[in-house]
Amino acid sequence: MFLLRMFTSISEAIWAILCLEIFFFNKTKRPTKTPTPKPQPQPHTTNVQVPQPEPKQITLTKLEGSPSFNDAKLSISSITSEGDKNIFSFDIENYELGAQTNNKFELANSGKGQHIHFIVNNGPYSAHYEDTFTKQFKESSNVILAFLSRSYHESVKNPNSFVLTQVGEDKIDLNKELLFYSRPKGTYEGLDTEYLLLDFYLVNTEISSNGNKVKATIMDTEFIIDEWAPYYIEGLDDGEINIKLELIDSFGKLIDTPFNPSDRVFTLESVSYTHLTLP
Fold first, then answer.
1. Mapping DSSP to helix (H, G, I), strand (E, B) and coil, where does residue 22 land?
2. pLDDT tens-place string over residues 80-131
3. Using 50, 70 and 90 to split pLDDT, how confident is the model at 32?
4. In angstroms, rounded to a whole number, what is the distance separating the alpha carbons of residues 179 and 173?
5. Is 276 in contact with 190 (CB distance < 8 Å)?
6. Residue 40 contacts by C-beta under 8 Å, 6 or more apart in sequence?
7. Long-range contacts for 215-224 (Cβ within 8 Å, ≥24 apart)?
8. Among 129, 235, 237, 273, which is 20 to 30 Å from 168 by CA?
9. pLDDT in tens, 201-242
10. Closest alpha carbon to 178 in 125, 245, 232, 225
11. 80 Cβ partners below 8 Å, 6+ apart?
């Protein structure tokens, strides 16, 4: 009986010890925590609205205020041939070749002054600062328009300021309605790209709101012109510029006449600020 009680006491003691170990083990054990990653700072972003440049708009504005030269006169004194060369001599009244025209428009200007625009078959003009000069022709028909020009290449528009003639074996009817292209021409650089002179010459016709007109297409932008006057163009980007002039009737139909329409390409290079002087 004594042994049984002792055994029971030992069992109870062992059980008590086990319980105490379990108690202290659970009490001292710390749960393993997975470290929480620190939040990383996010880059600060701000929605900034970058203003976009407005697309340029091509505009055409009448040029007003040029010296009129209403009494200026140009006529042919003689045309003589020497082999394949043709010598043209002109008489000029009330107009001084080589003088600088008062240019308040900041248009491309010739440093050589006022001159004669000499156009053959509505091609690009040549500028002449003397009243006598020599030309060579390759075609059998050469329709020639010569007119007085201001130093910034605006034509003098009066009944006596031009000459229309032709040289060669093949002739055309010079009594037809004719439109000749003059400006713009060539390459413009720097400040000369800001204002571009648009100028043309009409012979045997008039334009008006009720009659014939000139349609100018500049890089797909169309303008209907019903007054024969100089104009200036603004709003063009750099590069090659296409322009077309058409003499149209009161119904908007292209008039069937020589040199109609006129197509030209010229170039703008505004990044260079070398002031260009065109002949």
1. helix
2. 988 889 999 999 999 999 999 998 888 999 999 999 999 999 999 999 999 9
3. low
4. 14
5. yes
6. none
7. 215/244, 215/245, 215/246, 215/248, 215/252, 216/60, 216/243, 216/244, 216/245, 216/246, 217/242, 217/243, 217/244, 217/246, 218/58, 218/60, 218/242, 218/243, 219/58, 219/243, 221/58, 223/60
8. 129
9. 999 999 999 999 999 999 999 999 999 999 999 999 999 999
10. 245
11. 86, 87, 89
Q: Cβ(74)–Cβ(162) under 8 Å?
A: yes
- Please choose, from the candidates 159, 252, 253, 150, the residue with its C-alpha nearest in 3D space to the C-alpha of residue 202: 159
Phi/psi for 28 (5° steps) reads: -85, -20
Token pair of 37 as six digits: 């990653």
Its pTM stands at 0.79
Cα–Cα dist 61/29, whole Å: 93
Encoding tokens for residue 69? 């030269």
Helix (H, G, I), strand (E, B) or coil at 25: helix
Give 96: exposed, middle or buried? Use CB within 10 Å, 0-12, 13-18, 19+. Answer: exposed
Between 138 and 194, whose confidence is greater? 194
